[in-house]
Amino acid sequence: MNTDAFLARLLEEGIKPYAEKLARILLTGDIAVVVFEPHASSRPAMRALGWDGKSAVFAMPNNIRKRLAKNIDAVTSAWLTNGNVGRIFVCVHFGTLLVNFVEELGFSIEPGSLDAPIQEQQLN
User: Residue by residue, what is the 3-state secondary structure of the chain?
Assistant: First the structure.
């Protein structure tokens, strides 16, 4: 599957069906986390983010956001701490996507953030 097709499917199946829940999280300024087709080996890291193992969408707890920002690449760290409204941290397969939502512009991927894997130790 090509990247464009996958991103379109992620949007249609992993983000749009949860628009109301995402909006409630994003409007508070929190970071929403979307879990989409997680690989079994990435589930422990997702649980360390606060995932209950079932929910497709949840708010990233602030203590986890702060801890992660200290132990990850510069692009992700800046994104986690910039305070912008409309941030969606997507956990997909083995990696992540940093997605921004701006009402007038729609969805975009944070420049420089494509598919940065999360290791469970980065969250500790």
Answer: CCHHHHHHHHHHHHHHHHHHHHHHHHCCCCCEEEEEEECHHHHHHHHHCCCCCCCCEEECCHHHHHHHHHCCCHHHHHHHHCCCCCEEEEEEECEEEEEEEECCCEEEECCCCCCCCCCHHHHC
Each residue of 1-11: b (16+ CB within 10 Å) or e? eeeeeebeebe
Decide: 58 and 49 in contact? Cβ < 8 Å: no
**The one-letter amino acid at 96:** T
CB 65 within 8 A of CB 25: no
Residue 120 is predicted with a pLDDT of 44
For residue range 37-56, what is the model confidence (pLDDT) as tens digits?
999 999 999 999 999 999 99
> What are the φ/ψ torsions at residue 84 (nearest 5 degrees)?
-65, 145
Q: Which domain holds residue 44?
A: 3-123
* Total number of domains in the chain: 1
